[in-house]
From TrEMBL:
Organism: Aythya fuligula
Any GO molecular function: serine-type endopeptidase activity
Chain intervals for the UniProt region annotation (Disordered): 25-53
Domain Peptidase S1: start-end pairs: 68-294
Gene Ontology biological process terms from the UniProt entry: proteolysis
One of the Pfam families matching this protein, by short name: Trypsin
Protein name: Granzyme M
Signal peptide positions (record): 1-22
């Protein structure tokens, strides 16, 4: 019974294709099937998506503690670009404020069966903070990358146009995109709220280092699942890793910090050193980002 219950929960976490559950079994989102997990444990996922699950937006029934592992609480408002993307009042993903009306997050954050209207909250430290430091916005337009592929997780980016402009303050400020792709060994960091059960949950942060993409792509690691526009990284302390609700959070590097990428996927066992977390490169998609910020995109239903 236990096993079946947890399998059911896992299915809830997966993005549902238009055809619903039937189609899903045939799809590459193999993590939901026992074969899928076996495949992953042998170290040879058919695609990153086959070992995914961990970072898909949770349902409000998500039960385990799923925040950044081995991180520490961020200094309040030290990352004023961090936003919480919420659906029906539940945190589903992190994101970065890149302009007064635009947030950069991951495409897989917006799945068809959301629990309610999507909203972006800026200026938070504790997830349920409200009041003067925070502002909350509905979404005017959602612009997923047109070539987002939920099987390979390529181009896992989403720009959300807010219903109004953010008023800048000490707690609400934009962040720039990094100019160059960070080299292997670059020190970066990632913050997120995870999927906290504790309503007082505060923003956690994690120091990470960029990994060599070729190594990360080899047969011991992600076995060909790393596209040239992905960035592999690892926690600088053993066992430290982002998990579920940290999807969409910006990977930031440099001084002043700028966005190198957007948290996309990791293994269902986040501490597995051979399946390091992977971000979508923002630098590698700069043209699409800049064009979308200038001109918007064809209207998509959220
Ligand atoms: C990883 O391997 C795949 C398959 O061989 C290849 O298509 C892809 O370009 C490689 N990625 C990198 C970053 O070299």
């Amino acid at each position: 019974m236990e096993a079946r219950a947890s399998l059911g929960l896992l299915l809830l976490l997966l993005p549902l294709p238009s055809g619903g559950l039937g189609e899903q079994h045939g799809g590459a989102v193999g993590v939901s099937s026992p074969q899928g997990s076996a495949e992953m444990e042998s170290g040879r996922p058919r695609s990153p998506a086959a070992a995914l699950g961990a970072l898909f937006p949770p349902s409000s029934r998500g039960r385990s503690r799923l925040g950044i592992i081995g991180g520490h609480e961020a200094k309040p408002h030290s990352r004023p670009y961090m936003v919480s993307v919420q659906s029906g009042g539940v945190h589903i993903c992190g994101g970065a404020l890149v302009q007064q009306r635009w947030v950069l997050t991951a495409a897989h954050c917006i799945v068809r069966r959301l629990k309610g209207p999507v909203k972006v909250v800026v200026g938070l430290h504790h997830l349920w903070d409200r009041g003067a430091a925070t502002q909350s916005f509905a979404i005017r337009t959602a612009c997923p990358h047109p070539n987002y592929n939920r099987k390979t997780m390529e181009n896992d980016l989403l720009l959300l146009q807010l219903s109004g402009p953010v008023s800048w303050s000490r707690t609400r400020r934009p962040i720039a995109l990094l100019r160059r792709e960070p080299k292997a060994g670059t020190a970066c960091s990632l913050a997120g709220w995870g999927v906290p059960r504790d309503p007082a949950a505060a923003l956690q942060e994690l120091e990470v280092a960029v990994l060599d993409a070729r190594m990360c792509n080899n047969s011991r690691f992600w076995h060909g699942g790393i596209a040239p526009t992905m960035i592999c990284f690892q926690g600088r302390h053993r066992g430290a890793a982002p998990t579920k609700g940290d999807s969409g959070s910006p990977l930031v590097c440099g001084q002043p910090a700028a966005v190198a990428g957007v948290m996309s996927f990791s293994s269902a066992r986040p501490e597995d050193p051979l399946k390091p977390p992977v971000a979508t490169s923002a630098v590698g998609h700069k043209k699409w980002i800049q064009r979308t910020l200038r001109r918007g995109c064809p209207r998509t239903r959220v």
